[in-house]
Amino acid sequence: MTHQIELRVYYEDTDLAGIVYYANYLKFIERGRTEWVRSLGVDQAALKREEGIVFAVRRVEADYLRPARFDDLLVVKTRLLALGGARIEVEQTVERDGAILFTARVVLVCLSEAGVAARIPAGLRSRLAPLHH
């Protein structure tokens, strides 16, 4: 199952050339992941408070295919690729009118309060498992 959100490109997202500044795509996909997890009924603040865990980006492989510009309406899509003991891998795209502008594979790691890898809690795993084929 692919989750998606829409977002608008604002002037502040663009560079001198009038296109979306490359680092802002990372912000866009972060929003996509946050809303994806929220759509699963997961409260990340509660995970930190009650379970003592957070998720951190370990790796991003990104391809910038076409530029987005001021006022474009974009769609950020997020799809689960892999679910490990302490690791989640997702594929994300940023699209405009069905054309893929940016694509990324993101590896997230579940971390304890001490900053070391920790197993993904059972409750979260049960929400993610049906999405993993």
TrEMBL record:
InterPro entries: 4-hydroxybenzoyl-CoA_TE (IPR050563), HotDog_dom_sf (IPR029069), Thioestr_dom (IPR006683), Tol-Pal_acyl-CoA_thioesterase (IPR014166), YbgC/YbaW (IPR006684). One of its GO terms (molecular function) is fatty acyl-CoA hydrolase activity. It holds the Pfam family 4HBT. The keyword rRNA-binding does not apply. Keywords: Hydrolase. Residues 18-98 form the Thioesterase domain. Belongs to the 4-hydroxybenzoyl-CoA thioesterase family. This is Tol-pal system-associated acyl-CoA thioesterase. It comes from Paragemmobacter kunshanensis. The gene is ybgC.
